[in-house]
Write a structure and sequence with these properties.
With 102 residues, the chain is mainly α. This is Phosphoribosylamine--glycine ligase. Keywords: Signal.
C-alpha cells in the first residue's frame, strides 16, 4: 500500500481515536469546551485513583463490571472537583447527573 492511498484511511481513523474517551467509563464526564475543562479531563485521566483501576484490571468479568461501575462515579467526581478548584464551577454546586451508559 502506498502512502498516498493510506492517507484517506488515516483521516477516517482520527475521529474514531479522538472520540474514544467520550464513551464507556468517560460517558458521565461532561464534554465541556474550553481549556479548563480539557485540563480537568486530563487531570482525571492522570489521577492516581484512575490509574490504579488500570493496574488492577484482570480477566475476571464480574470484577471488570464492578470497576466500570466505580469509574462511572469516580471520573465525573474528579472532573467536577477540578472544575470547582479552578473556579469554572461555583463551590457547592452539585455535580452533573450521571447518564446511563451501556
Amino acid at each position: 500500500m502506498k502512502i498516498r492511498s493510506a492517507l484517506p484511511l488515516l483521516g477516517l481513523m482520527v475521529p474514531m481515536i479522538v472520540g474514544c474517551d467520550t464513551g464507556g467509563v468517560w460517558a458521565n464526564v461532561p464534554d465541556d469546551p474550553g481549556p479548563v475543562a480539557a485540563q480537568c479531563r486530563r487531570e482525571a485521566a492522570n489521577s492516581p485513583q484512575y490509574r490504579l483501576y488500570g493496574e488492577m484490571a484482570g480477566g475476571n468479568a464480574a470484577n471488570n463490571e464492578q470497576q466500570r461501575q466505580e469509574l462511572l462515579v469516580l471520573l465525573p467526581r474528579l472532573y467536577h472537583d477540578c472544575m470547582v478548584r479552578n473556579g469554572a464551577d461555583p463551590a457547592g454546586s452539585p455535580a452533573p447527573r450521571d447518564r446511563v451508559t451501556f
